[in-house]
Amino acid sequence: MSAYFVLICANGDLMDTSLLTSIRSADYERCIDMRPDIGATASVHQRSRLRFAHLSVSQPSLIVVINGEKTLQYHGQHQAITTTVAAGQAILLDHGTYDIINRPAADGLYEAFWLAWDHGHITAFATRTPPIKPTCPQHLRHIEPDFYAALLRARQALMCADIPAAIALHRMEEVLWWLYEQGIAFEARTTPSLITRLGHLLSGQPDHGWTLAEVADRLAVGQATLRRRLAADGKTFSDILIDTRMSLALTLLQCSDQPINRIALDVGYELASRFAVRFRKRFGFAPSEVRGHSR
């Protein structure tokens, strides 16, 4: 039986595979599935060992490695933390900057899936539970079969519009409860920072011809204030815009079957050649290499 349909827990138990089979059938044409105010999910396929430097994460996320392994280095305020996540394990990520290496397995494929929560959902959950100090990244070296089944049910709810939103919300919360029972929680943020709001604005319309003046107006801040806040992080508006577009492009290359020229248009580049140059400058390799086509 294919290794893609039978996953083994760290203790050797057989994971529930019925939902996984149905999800993989739906993933034949891969895409990123999102439900407003609830969350998002996608599967990641990669056929080359690549390093992605300084990726910014702003959404509470859980990544489950299915095939191959993932190494992350978290750049904290006082130290760098490195961890390697093997197949059958998971990692929780929240606000921060990471260097990531995805390594394909012996069959030449790295594969994973991720779940991401809306910040409002995380905050609402935190108000109903006794506080736990958030710690991300958090490495889950063992996933109980029932917990894994809950992850797959949450994925299915995000992928299937016929499942009522209330049920999808309940399934995503079930995953939060599984984490909570293990002493793990995401950080609740009642007021997103200006930089976070800027990132959400740009990522919502990456193909738009954004200007600093328009962005400042949309965020209801002065242009000088916005420049000053960005400069405090050592960045410019152009830096944030390019990095947002390139990070989204990377996600689409890993998680969808869209052709590269379509992805270029989606992130604001009419010429695929110009997009490829910008992508290589940001990551150090061509967009095609993410899908295993080296030049």
Keywords:
10 strands; 295 residues; 11 helices; 21% strand; six-stranded antiparallel beta sheet; 41% helix; alpha+beta; disordered N terminus; globular; four-stranded antiparallel beta sheet; single chain
Description of the structure:
The protein is of the alpha+beta class and 295 residues long. The chain is built from 11 helices and 10 strands. The protein has helices at 18-26, 119-127, 145-159, 165-181, 194-204, 212-219, 223-232, 237-255, 260-266, 272-283, 287-290, and strands spanning 33-35, 39-46, 50-57, 61-67, 69-75, 80-86, 90-93, 96-103, 110-117, 138-140. α3 (145-159) packs antiparallel against α4.
What strand line-up does the widest sheet have?
1-2-9-4-7-10
Query: What is the averaged pLDDT score?
Result: 85
Order of helices and strands: HEEEEEEEEEHEHHHHHHHHH
Portion in beta strands: 15-25%
Q: Bin the helical content.
A: 40-55%
The biggest beta sheet is recorded as: 6 strands, antiparallel
Secondary-structure content class: alpha+beta
Query: Uncertain segments of ≥5 residues (pLDDT<50)?
Result: 1-28
Counting DSSP E segments of at least 2 residues, the number of strands comes to: 10
Report the C-alpha radius of gyration, rounded: 19 Å
